């Protein structure tokens, strides 16, 4: 494992009976990066994170985290990482301050430092005016901030966040990400799973998981640029007819309607003539032009082949 990597995993696999939840995944997470896991529910994100934390033993594969072998050195790793789950896991019948003080005790922070550290976190995470309030009465965004404050109580080198913003409003999500970048700027490595495209675009580097398989890995910009020439925008007065005509073509990966316009992802940019012909037949007044690829296009392109193969493997009804 190189000194520039916080996490290195090779052939990481987890089998639950007949189900292979994670299938031969290789990961390299640079130190100080915000590294995203993008994928739908059931794609293997949470299972992968639990194996990297040492909470779940892999069926096969090698894991190095912060220079430690996992799961053999999982106990030593606990003091150096923070972990925030999707579900609020603090004590709802304790106050905000009591929750943070309890976490400080669990992390064995020196008593002389606890009050200063808790006060600083209450201030930094905008909870000072809620210090005496029971955690169970907080809003979703406040609970999220409290959980993050607890996860960083001991100033971990590496922070694992499993779908941390799934139950909060857009404004709270934006504030949460500001906190993550402040942590990254201070040197913390962050691995965060999400199914939100706008959050994935914020990450320094991104891995896309699909049914346990790593189907793409790179910076959001590089992954998007790889699709240059394959994405098109269509303006049509009859978008449903145009969509049906384009979707029927062999060279089209997907056609999505966005308002009155269509977004088309093709297998390659060389097949534009059949697209134009099909579009003219459906709506002579429609227009089509190349558009910049989005991260959603990247996701669809990365998972498209496996989705079709899965459908072909299903037995006939």
From TrEMBL:
<feature type="domain" description="ABC transporter">
    <location>
        <begin position="7"/>
        <end position="236"/>
    </location>
</feature>
<dbReference type="GO" id="GO:0016887">
    <property type="term" value="F:ATP hydrolysis activity"/>
</dbReference>
<keyword id="KW-0547">Nucleotide-binding</keyword>
<dbReference type="InterPro" id="IPR003593">
    <property type="entry name" value="AAA+_ATPase"/>
</dbReference>
<dbReference type="InterPro" id="IPR017871">
    <property type="entry name" value="ABC_transporter-like_CS"/>
</dbReference>
<dbReference type="InterPro" id="IPR003439">
    <property type="entry name" value="ABC_transporter-like_ATP-bd"/>
</dbReference>
<dbReference type="Pfam" id="PF00005">
    <property type="entry name" value="ABC_tran"/>
</dbReference>
<dbReference type="GO" id="GO:0005524">
    <property type="term" value="F:ATP binding"/>
</dbReference>
<dbReference type="InterPro" id="IPR027417">
    <property type="entry name" value="P-loop_NTPase"/>
</dbReference>
<protein>
    <submittedName>
        <fullName>ABC-2 type transport system ATP-binding protein</fullName>
    </submittedName>
</protein>
<keyword id="KW-0067">ATP-binding</keyword>
């Amino acid at each position: 494992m190189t000194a520039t990597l916080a996490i290195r995993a090779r052939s990481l696999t987890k089998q639950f009976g007949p189900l292979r939840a994670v299938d031969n995944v290789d990961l390299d997470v640079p130190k100080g990066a915000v590294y995203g896991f993008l994928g739908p529910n059931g794609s293997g994100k949470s299972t992968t994170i639990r194996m990297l934390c040492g909470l779940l033993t892999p069926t096969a594969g090698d894991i190095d985290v912060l220079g430690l072998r996992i799961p053999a050195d999982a106990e030593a790793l606990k003091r150096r990482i923070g972990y925030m789950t999707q579900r609020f896991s603090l004590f709802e019948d304790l106050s905000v301050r009591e929750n943070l003080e309890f976490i400080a005790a669990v992390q064995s922070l020196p008593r002389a430092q606890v009050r200063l550290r808790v006060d600083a976190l209450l201030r930094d995470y905008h909870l000072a005016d809620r210090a005496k309030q029971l955690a169970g009465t907080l809003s979703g965004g406040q609970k999220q901030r409290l959980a993050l404050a607890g996860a960083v109580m001991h100033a971990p080198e590496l922070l694992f966040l499993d779908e941390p913003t799934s139950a909060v409003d857009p404004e709270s999500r934006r504030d949460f990400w500001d906190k993550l970048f402040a942590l990254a700027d201070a040197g913390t490595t962050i691995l965060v799973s999400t199914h939100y495209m706008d959050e994935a675009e914020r990450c320094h580097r991104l891995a896309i998981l699909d049914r346990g398989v790593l189907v793409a890995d790179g910076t959001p910009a590089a992954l998007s640029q790889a699709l240059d020439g394959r994405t098109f925008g269509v303006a049509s007065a009859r978008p449903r007819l145009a969509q049906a005509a384009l979707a029927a073509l062999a060279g089209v990966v997907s056609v999505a309607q966005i308002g009155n316009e269509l977004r088309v992802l093709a297998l390659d940019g060389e097949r534009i003539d059949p697209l134009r012909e099909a579009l003219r037949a459906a709506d002579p007044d429609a227009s089509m032009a190349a558009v910049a690829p989005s991260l959603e296009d990247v996701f669809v392109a990365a998972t498209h082949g496996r989705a079709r193969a899965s459908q072909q493997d299903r037995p006939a009804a």
